[in-house]
Design a protein that fits this description.
By secondary structure, the chain is of the alpha/beta class. It folds into 2 domains: 177 residues, Response regulator (Rossmann fold), CATH 3.40.50.2300; 131 residues, Response regulator (Rossmann fold, 3-Layer(aba) Sandwich), CATH 3.40.50. Helices cover 39% and strands 17% of the residues.
């Protein structure tokens, strides 16, 4: 026995054990007394002192901080309720990636070209160590896999056009853990956990609807050519448009077709609709506008009011046929959003205070304001999207440089 080996009497051992128990209880009581004796509010203040993050977890992701944000003339808050984020500052240059989804239309192609051009622009080139581009198609799993891969490779910032507005929670958490700034733009996410860049798609849809409504006076047969299905931009434009057209007292018959923001697909969709319905009083097309208008003209349909995107070809046709009845409103979702998203990511990486959701003004032109060389270009291709410059952000990219770039992936 251990007691015998140590030569300790059993009665003495009991006394020692009781004493140890008493000392332990006394120490515990003192600790509790110290805690109970803390001044009121000290615990609450300690909790308040912890970092508040976009994920709501201490030590991960950007902090939610008071505004105002950096360069509000460029990075304007979406609304008065928009919160502000701040990441821990890093020293550049940075490794950036563009993870695109679908690349099968003119807008996406020009967007990729714009991003590549901007990465070489003297305004940010010294802060860009490496720039990669990948287009994953419409499979959300492939897009999420690519984002995760770039995070694990040690990239600092990732800008992306989300295939879906949902399903990104896992990569957002991983990015926060690794200190990576993710910036969705154009097709954004239904979350406030990341910084996002966009134009107000609901407002854009409403403006198109208000224009058509003003031209038709509350009644008529309207062809709506919808965009690429399943993303937030298409959804919000449609909802905004229908808010106006379906308002009480309006008597519109609206025929919907899908053009996927693609000239060829939109042209075929309009041609097929004309085969069935013969005549429309107005046309609203989210994208693929040039093809949609050409389908009307090819069918011998009389010029009608059109609400379109900002493709150069559509603006050329509106300017050409406006005096024959083709009144038009052309609103632009600029491919230059890619450049603003890249700039936002770089500023965030440097610790600047940024709005969680950044609002970019909607470039607009109608039949009365169209001017060759100003807001459309007779000598440039029909597929060129006209709005690309954002002077308040220092984003001034020439059309020639953009069109000389390639849309292929940079791996």
């Amino acid at each position: 026995m251990l007691i015998r080996k140590l030569g300790i009497d059993s009665s003495k051992l009991v006394v020692v054990a009781i004493c140890c128990l008493w000392v332990g209880l006394s120490a515990s009581c003192k600790k509790e007394e110290a805690a109970d004796g803390a001044k009121p509010g000290e615990s609450a203040k300690a909790e308040e002192g912890k970092a508040t993050t976009a994920e709501g977890q201490e030590g991960e992701g950007p902090k939610v901080v008071p505004g105002p944000g950096y360069m509000p003339e460029c990075f304007a808050p979406w609304s008065k309720d928009t919160k502000f984020l701040q990441w821990k500052a890093k020293k550049g240059p940075f490794r950036l990636a563009l993870v695109n989804g679908y690349v099968g239309n003119a807008w996406r192609i020009q967007m990729v070209k714009t991003a590549k051009t901007f990465a070489k622009d003297p305004a940010i080139a010294p802060l860009v160590k490496e720039f990669k581009v990948i287009s994953t198609g419409t499979d959300i799993a492939a897009q999420l896999g690519s984002i995760e891969d770039f995070i694990n490779q040690g990239f600092d910032g990732i800008v992306t056009l989300a295939v879906s507005p949902e399903g990104f929670d896992r990569v957002i958490k991983l990015a926060n853990k690794k200190g990576v700034v993710i910036v969705p733009f154009d097709n954004v996410l239904d979350t406030d956990k990341v910084m996002q860049v966009n134009e107000d798609q609901l407002s854009m849809g409403r403006q198109w609807g208000e224009f058509i409504d003003k031209q038709l006076g509350g009644k008529g047969k309207v062809l709506e050519v919808r965009g690429l299905q399943g993303n937030s931009t298409e959804r919000d434009r449609h909802v905004g448009f229908r808010e106006i057209m379906d308002a009480p007292g309006k008597k519109y018959q609206i025929i919907e077709v899908v053009g996927s923001w693609d000239d060829g697909k939109a042209q075929k969709a309009v041609a097929d609709a004309l085969t069935v319905h013969r005549k429309f009083d107005a046309l609203f097309v989210q994208g693929g506008s040039t093809g949609a208008i050409r389908a009307l003209l090819d069918a011998g349909h009389k010029p009608i009011p059109v609400a379109t995107e900002a493709e150069n070809g559509a603006r050329k046709l509106i300017a050409q046929y406006s005096d024959k009845g083709m009144k038009g409103l052309s609103l632009g979702q600029s491919p230059g959003l890619a450049a603003i998203a890249m700039k936002a990511a770089i500023e965030g990486l440097q610790g600047k205070i940024m709005p969680q959701k950044i609002s970019v003004p909607i470039p607009a032109a109608d039949h009365s304001t169209l001017k060759d060389g100003d807001n459309y270009y007779a000598k440039l291709s029909d597929n060129f999207f006209t709005p690309n410059e954002f002077p308040p952000c220092g984003v001034n990219i020439s059309g020639v440089k953009i069109m000389n770039e390639s849309e292929t992936d940079l791996k």
